[in-house]
Amino acid sequence: MSYFVYVIIFIFGLAIGSFMNALIYRLYNQKPIVGNVRSECPHCGHVLAWRDLIPILSFIMLIGRCRYCKKKISWQYPLVEITTAVLFVFAFSYLGFSSYSTNQLLKVLNYWVILFALLFIFVYDLKYFLVEDVVVIPVAILSLIVNIIIGGTIWKLLLAGAAAALFFLFQYLITKGRGIGLGDTRIGLFMGFALSWPNIIVAIFFAYSIGLVVSLFLLLTRKRKVGAQMPFGPFLTMGTFIALFWADSIIKWYFNICKLS
Ligand SMILES: [Zn+2]
Q: How many domains does the chain have?
């Protein structure tokens, strides 16, 4: 595969990342997402021109400040753009695309949609402590459908979605919503439909492990008090990300260890 394709995908990823930034801003501020909407500076409200909206380049040329009010542009903007682009290229090279087939194309698109949703959930929950169902539910249904089309086992997909959602719901009920939010049950559904069974277990295992390590670190460095609210979505998305690419090898490795001992 020529490098040219990767460059095109990278630029496409930057554009999608730029769209994600706009989506995050507009959903939270309850502004229209489609139709004749112009992007504006969150500080001064000045309508932005095309030259202010080029992914990465505008941020560099403006040295991270709004052209009109000179207030700082959040690092979120270039970071989300670059991360989306890198994830898209990574997924494409991971899945491989030596010759054209509809199945392979669907697989790549499915991975891109899942990665988009993961990054969106990560940023949105970290920033606002909220899970946006407008994104999570359609993406959950979409990945269920695509996974069935490309040959996934229906009962395994449904089992994974139901198991994860019920697992989080159970936790929500016993902690009375202090640990985990109801929104996380919808993320669980999405994770299950994206990963299927048994890969969902790998995702949940890593989500809790990373969550535990980060919580301990924040407590020990006194960045956060005991019992302070912490969004769980970012950990769920990290666990899902690991499982999406490495669950099969992790499961194989785990059972080999069991056989040896
Ligand atoms: Zn401004």
A: 2
Alpha helices (runs of H) in 29-153, residue ranges in sequence order: 57-61, 76-95, 102-128, 133-149
Cβ 38 vs Cβ 52: under 8 Å: no
Residues 14 and 90 in one domain: yes
Domain that holds residue 257: 101-261
Give the distance (Å) from ligand 1 centre to CA of residue 69. 4
Residue 47 and residue 146 in one domain: no
What confidence tens digit (pLDDT) does each residue in 26-59 have?
899 888 877 667 888 989 989 998 888 899 999 9
Q: Are residues 79 and 56 in the same domain?
A: yes
> How far does the centroid of ligand 1 lie from the alpha carbon of residue 223, in Å?
31
Same domain, 118 and 243: yes
- Per-residue pLDDT tens over the stretch 47-101: 998 888 899 999 999 999 999 999 999 999 999 999 999 999 999 999 987 777 8
Residue 183 Cα to ligand 1 middle (Å): 33
Distance 65 CA to ligand 1 centre (A): 8
